[in-house]
């Protein structure tokens, strides 16, 4: 392969990896929620949109650098998720599986439409000096904000890992995920755990939103697309499988990047969807999951 | 070892147990069911003739339910064969078995909660009939089991005894030749038990082959023509109810070794 | 086993067509609408078409209990089929010329049923949540294909060409469209009433309630779900064809988008999945609300959908019609 083609390939891969990292962050939040609560959060992308708009608002009002918005968006997202789980999801009882789909669908609509009423439909962006800067690495251009987003993702996921495997809380969460009744009997307050987990998932979405803001335009319905991406990631990796979600995110990023470059940019979103459908049909437990019961 | 005191075998009114003859309607050979590393059922064989009642007993965890599910198509055996009326049905799914004439009840009743009692049975009678005829048949079955007074009640509101009867009604509406009863009697009060026993006996008398899993010893002993006792997935003893009940292995399986 | 048998002649019946009077009353009201609100005919036609969409959705969503968030795909199949076959420059050569819209609509129904058969056959083995996700994905893939294929007009979409008249009636006359849309809603109500009294209807309900229990009674759940899916798809496509005529121009971004699928599903659920007329009630209510909201806030009319579905899911899972259920009597025989 000649130099130009090699550089192009590396460029595409780098792009795919970094974007994939962000997808992994979004997917991890969704997968965590599903793994512990068996809830499919249809509003996940809309929580991401909240993160984006918080960043936008803070930038406009206080000229706050977007990355500082993390300090606001992450706790806010956590609190929002916690409250939603307590007030809405916890009331569904044994209708949880279907009820949570509908409830989160409704919440997503409320969020996106409230954003629409508050901020208007026009796509908006923030202008930070480093938004378009890149740096060179061996002939490959790497976008700085994308790189920072990738680093942010790594930190967030690393933090989650620490939480789950090195803390008491993490143990309680894992126990609830594996066997809610058993965990309850051992003294774990599964109700609080579920609220915490949902809060974490929403926080992750909001963080992703903040990290994306320097790169993209924000508009109220931006969430819809990211909810779909999150589903693709989690299904690829196996619903509830956290390491799988990370790999799934990276895989999705790569598929899109490679497909867009080598086949057609028009169908960029289609490659992920097709992979998603193939996995659903051929291996619904995900590329890394254990076998799911088939009817 | 002294013979322990078994509970008095209650005299149920009705005909004495007969031993039917003829070719078996249902035959199972060498049924083995493995889940992962666990062998739930190991090399069990049995046969049931039309009009015969086969009782399946054994302590908890003996594999009765798994064998039951294997016989009715809800679990695929890892080895062995199930034949019904001469046809190999080992791999045949439950819905096809129903059409062939095999009907079952579930230990934890599964009524269609949102539908009424009559409608529950109607779903079943639609297998063999259409339209008004199906509805008439369903109602007739309700009369047979004594649920006509609750015909329009939502199934979700029934008490235990009536839920059991509804389970049975749904199975009967399929007009089966072979009936599989999963703990239809346990948990009922004595008068309700008497009614069920009489019903089951009359069903066998009309030519149905019946396999019943049951915990209540005196019911199994009076109803069954033939009894199989399982423990740890294997066949422990089989034969005439009296013989099985007094078999030392069976007593040990249920009551534990005297050295325990 | 002696229980008092009901008096002869009072034997309860399960096989009924359901509340036909309510449907007739509803239809009568809908029939009167154009005479009272003659100026708001556009709104009326659109509402009726969506009512029909919601009713069609409910065959799968309410009766078979399978939540689909991809029904826009079938709307699209109906719309695109009718339009493409009616356009002289795009109709496939082997058909020898543009196809009249009624045949186009029929073909659209067939194609939709085929899509449902294939897609359903593949995905109904999966657990419920996976099916929902697959519906979203398939609709999105179709959308991308429509956007990127020149034959379907790409991202700009299609303009409805001249259409032949139907018994002398101009299909682009709003009053004619209202009549057709009315017919569509009537058809879906009829199908649902027939379903209520049929073996298929009961089999679908059994599958919805308990698949293993249904199996034990001789019903094949996968087969039933596919049948429901095909019926639902075909009816939706019929509405889609009508929708294309109403819109006169459409493009894939808005016709095949997820929010459309969500709208259809929510209309049925908010109205009441468990009742025959529920979806119509839901569609009418939400359309009216949406219209009011639009005039007040000029946008964000889906906000009401979000609020209502949240409220309904939490406090009234059987939808609005569920609130009128006679006390103690659940859905079963009153369905």
What does this structure look like?
The complex is a heterotrimer of chains A (295), B (260) and C (335). Chain A is mainly α. Chain A is built from eleven helices and two strands, in the order H-H-H-H-E-E-H-H-H-H-H-H-H. In chain A, 72% of the residues lie in helices and 3% in strands. In chain A, helix 1 (3-37) runs parallel beside helix 5, helix 9 (222-237) crosses helix 10 and helix 10 (242-262) packs across helix 11. The longest helix of chain A has 35 residues, at 3-37. The model of chain A has no long low-confidence stretch (mean pLDDT 87). Chain B is 35% helix and 23% strand. Chain B has nine helices and ten strands. In chain B, the strands form two sheets. A six-stranded mixed beta sheet of chain B has the order 6-7-8-3-9-10, with helices on both faces. Chain B has a four-stranded antiparallel beta sheet with strand order 2-1-4-5, covered by helices on one side. In chain B, helix 3 (117-125) packs across helix 4 (131-145), helix 3 runs parallel beside helix 5 (160-173) and helix 4 (131-145) crosses helix 5 (160-173). Residues 1-6 of chain B have low confidence and may be disordered. Chain C has helices at 20-36, 41-63, 72-86, 101-123, 128-148, 174-196, 199-209, 211-216, 221-247, 252-255, 258-271, 278-297, 303-315, 319-322, 331-334; strands at residues 158-159, 249-250. Chain C starts with 19 loop residues before the first helix and ends with a helix. Chains in contact: A-C, B-C. Chains A and C meet through helix 4, helix 9 and helix 11 of A and helix 5, helix 11 and helix 13 of C.
Features:
heterotrimer, B: about 260 residues, alpha/beta, six-stranded mixed sheet, four-stranded antiparallel sheet, 9 helices, about 25% strand, C: about 325 residues, mainly alpha, two-stranded antiparallel sheet, disordered C terminus
